[in-house]
Amino acid sequence: MDYKARIAKNISEITGAEEEQILKAIEIPPQLDLGDYAFPCFILAKVMKKNPAMIAGDLCGNADTLTGMEDKVSCKNVGPYLNFYVKREAIAEEVLGEIIEKGEDYGASDEGAGQNVIVEFSSPNIAKPFHVGHAFTTVLGNSISRIYSKLGYNVIRMNHLGDYGTQFGKLITAYRLWGDEEALKESPINELTRIYVKFHEEAKDNPELEDEARENFKKLEDGCPDEVALWQRFRDVSLEEFNKLYKRMGVEFDNYNGESFYSDKIPAVVDMLEEKGLLTESDGAKVVMLDDCKMPPCIILKSDGTTIYASRDLAAVLYRHETYNFSKNIYVVGIPQALHFKQVFAVLKKAGFDFADDCVHVGFGLVKFKNNVKFSTREGNVILLEDLLNEAVSKTRAIIEENAKSRGQDMDESEIDSIAETVGLGAVFYTYLKAGRERDILFDWDEILDFEGDTAPYLIYTYARTRSILRKAADMGLTPDGDIKLLVSDDEYAVIRALSDYKDAVKRAASAYEPFIVSRQIATIARSYNRFYNNSSILNCDNDDLKRARLVLCEAVCMTLKNGLELLGINVVERM
Ligand code: ARG
Asked: Which residues make Cβ contacts (< 8 Å) with residue 395, sequence separation at least 6?
């Protein structure tokens, strides 16, 4: 429907002001009596050299303001505001018609057709535990990938594994001394962490260990077969363990080119920077100076000639551009690495690669826990994602079981298990995605699992309950095909408005890299739907036509909630 866009276009054509700017200024008034959309005419005052109230009056009297939508929208002016009123029966037909017709594709578009977008996310370090911070990038990146796919972009999901660096020399040394073959098979990351910690303890009294580790890393860099084989093994077993988590989370990657993949591509980068005259010696290291960008220098080669994180990222971005000719290259990595990415992008720009402007660091905040979140942590003070998920699922299970008992629902153990898994994971994902990504997250079980709160359980429950109404209706022989034009009450209209704003929310979420715009929109849909549900009867409605129209509304709500949750990586259940 997008009346907002059409209104902006019309005003822009009449006044000559920029469409984009008008679109941005159009508001959704807080009360329905002020219209569905309002345009404050202040921004036109400069271009038109008139006061905003006069402009509003003129525009309102101008038939062209509504050209092409006169039968669906009317306009009034109040002071400097133009208020637009959408005719409820028209919008109901348009929005619900579109949702029912498109189903899963409601909110989809082809704006990205033919464009490659790289979303790099997760990127854990191999041989290290997968903690709740890595979960943030995983959940956020997964959602951003899904949103971009929905908009027709060809998304390449990359997992830039931390699989290179001097720590692998230490692991090789440690494994040869203390490694336990069986334990490595049984629980790879635990075993690798154990020997890594032991290495550091032993090296305090035994500094030669460090030399040996350095030597082993050198051998690894030089491609010595034994060292490479061990490293490969650490990588394989770690990835196997990560993949179990990814599978459980419903996350997939197209590509696991980690840091190691780029190590042999670095000399070419160094040569290129050298040729362009960008490399400077500094304390034996080679750096690109960035003082003109008010940043510390970007180190390319360390004084011992070994490569580092930034050079691997430079090699990676050049490779990505060459391989995928991306229109966007998105890095979903925590805020603490913001400077690193600014430096990498600045070096690219200096070297004359304009695609630096298409590279985006999408940062996110920290993960904190309220006192009621306790774990028997296996690894000192990091909280493992697996423990968090298990705890969420078991707590959800208890609630579902209790609810089923009190409602007298008969559910067997395996159904309860599967609902608890879906809802529990959903609860955790939603917590990561319900607010702006740069905000820190506070995990609090009471809040996350509140079936009435701003939570995934609330949304999934709304979906499941509505599905059960639709099933009941079908059993009663009722078909969802009433006259949609009857859906004009305030409550019904609020739901339809929320549904109609969903499409725009998906687009805005993509351009701001903010899945919370989608989560907030579906939460608005669910809240307004539940208000409607509490105030009106659906199956007991005495007007048969209206009853069947309300079933259409139920169906549209289900579809949109399911679509939206899917964009967040969250599944639904048919009953709970
Ligand atoms: N492995 C790194 C970490 O765990 C994150 C990698 C981020 N991506 C990148 N291209 N530098 O901190």
From this structure: 424, 445, 449
The pLDDT tens digits of the residues spanning 317-374 come to 999 999 999 999 999 999 999 999 999 999 999 999 999 999 999 999 998 888 766 6
Pocket of ligand 1 (CB under 6 A): 120, 123-125, 160, 162, 313, 331, 333
**In a mutational test of the pocket of ligand 1, which residue from 134, 326, 337 has the highest number of ligand atoms less than 8 Å from its CB?**
337
The per-residue b/e assignment along 125-157, b for 16 or more CB within 10 angstroms, e otherwise, is bbbbbbbbbbbbbbbbbbbbbbbbbbbebbbbb
Separation between Cα atoms, residue 561 and residue 265, nearest integer Å? 45
Give, as one character, the DSSP assignment of residue 368: E
Task: Note the pLDDT of residue 156.
Answer: 98
H or E stretch covering 493: helix 490-500
Residues noted as catalytic? 128, 131, 134
Q: What is the dihedral of CA 314, 317, 319, 320, to 10 degrees?
A: 170
Pairing of strands 279-282, 285-288: antiparallel
pTM of the complete model: 0.92
Closest CA to 144 of 361, 386, 454, 390: 361
> What is the layout of strands, in order, in the sheet containing 285-288?
279-282, 285-288, 298-301
Contacts of 535 (CB under 8 A, 6+ apart): 491
